Every structure is written in C-alpha cells, then in structure tokens.
Records
---
Amino acid sequence: MPATDPHVSATVRLGTVGVAHKPVSAAESIAANRLWWDADADDYVAEHGDFLGEASFVWCPEGVTEADAQLLGAVAGRRVLEVGCGTAPCSRWLTTQGAYAVGTDLSAGMLRHARVSADATGVRPPLVQATATALPFAAASFDLACSAFGAVPFVADSDRLMAEVFRVLRPGGRWVFSVTHPMRWIFPDDPGEDGLVAQSSYFDRTPYVEIDERGSATYAEHHRTLGDRIREIVGAGFTLTDLLEPEWPDGHARLWGQWSPLRGKIFPGGTAIFVCDKPV
C-alpha cells in the first residue's frame, strides 16, 4: 500500500498484506473491524474531521445534512439511538436540537475521539461501546434510530442488526441509515478514470476482506444488493418509506476515498439512504 494512503498507519499496525474475497464469520468480522477502527481512528479523524464537524449531522460524502433533509423528522424531546456513531458528531448535533441522543460504536478508538470532541464542544451525549447486532438496551426504549455510514456495511449478519434496531424502537419509531450505494461494489476503489470501468459482479456477495500474513481478517466489509437491503428491512418488520440516492452536488470538489465528482456525476456510487418506519 503506498505511503500516501491515509490508512497506511492502520495497515502497518495490523500487519495487512493483501486482499481476499472470502466468507468471514460474524465473530471474525466483528473482531477485525474493532481492531481496524481502533487502529485507524486517528487517521480517519485527521482526514475527515473537518468535513464531518464536531456537532453536525452529515449523512454522506455528497454532503446531505439532517438539518436540510430532516429525514428523522422532529427530534426535540425524542430519544434517539445512533448506531455506529464513530466520533459521534451526529449525536452531538441531535443533542443541540433538543433530543436525548445515545451513541454506540464498536471501536474504543473512535469513542475516544468522541469524548475529546465532547469536551471541546461541551455537548456530551451518552456513549456506549457495543456491537450493532447486540444492542444493550431494553425493547421499545427509543423513538428514533439512525446511522450515517456506521455499522451496517461492516457486520456479516446485517439482518440481525435490522431486527435489533426494530426491537429497541417504540411502535411508530423511525430508522434511517446511510450506506455506500451497492452500485459501488461493481467498480474499483479509484476516484479517477480507472474507477469508471466495472470489474466485479453486482450479484457477488462475497465479502471484501483485508488479511494479514496468516490469512486472518484485519478489515471486513459486506455487500448487499438493493433488493437484499429491502428484504432485510421488511423481514425485520419495518416499512420502507423512502430510498434516497443523492446526486453529487455542483461545485463539490472533495475526494473521499473512491468517491469523486467524476464518478458522482455518472452513477450513484456514493450513497443510498433508507428511511424505515416501525408500524404503530
């Protein structure tokens, strides 16, 4: 991996030597991603912290904000769970809007940065280290739940994640989450011209796994088609209310990994946002 790669520190610390497309168990995926995000937390914040802000709610690399989109609806006075909160800027923003927000994340490294930002801003929502497939909360204890590129793509059993979120939401509650658009799976992780040429099958669900010299996973990400996601959502008991595919905004020149203005003008390789409601 070239030294200019922003994630080289985590790669070196974890001993990553290559990529393997292979099945990984739920337990191995959790363990690998906990180690990865702990190791990458400092670099991630250095690279993206200015864009995400310390108390703002940005849904995606295209820059859609909750302040503008209002996908969660009114949040003041509501109990809101953020799943995969990372450094928790969304939870802090929700708190400034009058919500009682709670952020959960797998990574102690990311939560460490969340605490630093809480001290800097004076906005301190509760933070809980937990896996998204075993949320440590009672049934029907939240009004709303959200996840901005957190947790969902990184768990092997995302159907269980959907069921867990359904469990902790009250009847009439809403679950909104953003993930990398499934179209991205077809194309290489390259923001330039080479990233416009399809190289993989959309229907190949084999996980993307980075491995060390022993073949153990150091990072894992799981592909689902749009149909897969909808079946998970409906199977958990939700009603899919909306599916947003943000277009790349004019004048938005920022590169974020493989996302770029070049790719964003052609296909929705950036983001899919699912808006789901729990029946009353």
---
Amino acid sequence: MADSKTSGGAAAGATSGKRPVIVTCALTGGGDTVGKNPAVPVTPEQIATSALDAAKAGAAVVHIHVRDPATGKPSTDLALYRETVERIRAVDTDVIINLTTGAGARFIPSDADPRVGAPGSTLAPPEARVRHVEALRPEICTLDITTMNFGEFVFVNTPAHLRVMGRAVAAAGVLPELECFDSGNVRLALRLIEEGVLREPAMFQLCLGVPWGAPATPEAMMFMRDMLPKGTFWTGFGIGPAQFPMVAQAILLGGHVRVGLEDSLHIEKGVLAPSNAALVEKAVRILRALDTEPATPAEARHILGLPRGPA
C-alpha cells in the first residue's frame, strides 16, 4: 500500500498513467431513509441490482447493509446477506464486496432505567455482529472504531468488543475497513494495530459529518489523515451536502472516495439522486476533472493487497 499522504499510487495494470482512485459505493445503509427517496434499495434483489449498476458506473467496491423487505428497517438476517451476495456474484465476480458489521451497536437508554435499552436499541454480542462475515467471507467488512453520540442514540463499540470482532474477521481472512468518525477513533485503531488485533498496513475510512463526530471539512480530513502512519491506505467521505466536496478533498489529499445513498439522498441541492449509479458517475466526473481515474476492481485489489479474485 502507498504512503498515507499519497495513498494509492499507480497500480499494476493501469494504462493511463493517472493515479487510480478506488470508488466505494455505500448502497443503502441502515438509516431511516426508505420512503425519503424511492431509489433507496430494500430487497436483496434491489440491493444487488443497485450494486451491479454502481460497478458498471465505476465503483470497484460495494458496501452492503441489508433491510427487512417487508418493513425497510435494517436487518442482520444472514439469509438476506447471502441472497444479496449470491445475486451479485452470479453476475459480476469481479466487484469487491464490503459487508457492514455496524448493526447491533445502537443503544437508547430508557427513561425508567437508563441501564436498560429503550425500544430501538439493538445492542448485540460482538460474535453475533460478525457471523455473516464468517459465513460469507467477503473481501472486506467494516469495523466501526467508535463509541459516540450518533444523532440521538449512542453507537457502542467498546475496545473489548472490537478485539473480539477484529480477531474473528482476521481468522476469516477478511480485510477490515476501519471506520473512524473522529480523531480519537484513529488513536484507538492504532492501539489495536499495536496489540496485533488488526493487521498492518490497515485500511482506514474517515467518516465525516455524522452528528456528533468530526465535521465534514478539509481541516478535519487533513488532521485525521495526518494521524495515520506511513503506508496506510485511507479513503474518506462526507454525508449529506458534503458528499461531493469531500470526494474532491479526499482526492486532493491523496486518498480514495466513497459515495452512495447511504451517505446522501441527493445528487445536488434539492435534487434527489435517481440511483447509486448516478452518484458514482458524478464522483467519477470529479475524479477525472482532477486528473485521476477510477480504479478497476483488479487495480483496487492490487492497492489493497487482496486476492486476485473472490474467495
């Protein structure tokens, strides 16, 4: 992997001579967005179709949550993950699959007893949060290195739970994408690397603009990037209106990018995004305007040190 300040130099097989930038598309997320934009995919078929369209548009990586097809609410059902992954693999064995492990970390203290979760809490044992990763063996899965106020609830990922999840992911041969929402998260991730829980060089994702984490600003992205050790791959994104400004910022700082309906429902101010593919296409236009090129899945595997094809 390349130097953290210029992460992702020219990959083997690149023919243009321009820096290949990995585009990740976050397809649906677990937020309350269903119904706010009809393009948000819900069923395994819809999520897989959206993933395939995003890959055709230039995404090398597709980041996957699943939802209950009946309600649109976030789900951890292994059968839904399996169907989604199998539908993608049946058509495109090249695109890199990245499964979330974020579900199962939400806590809302009840009014009667704050020690007890109120309705909407989803806290689950760390082993349960990685079972689908162990079963399906994607190339990448997320690992949220944070405990924080996440809007109006608490997103709980204690160091002890992260150690359990990190070791399970490593044993499954899956690369963890270390999602950091503030500078202290980077510090914790580096400690887990020092402990040997997480491999080095690592894959970092700088997640900006989420209430109440680091803001989606050039200064915040640069500060967190500069905390990373030499040789670390990183990518970054901003949510909502900051989605595309942070695409440009990450490219200028030598990183890689993420877009998708998980992060923003709009393609420009006041205009709903018609699809994940449309968001990827706009990101690709920004990449090319800045004299870079979207990495192919093969180039992305080379940059990330992944096997040449799916496991």
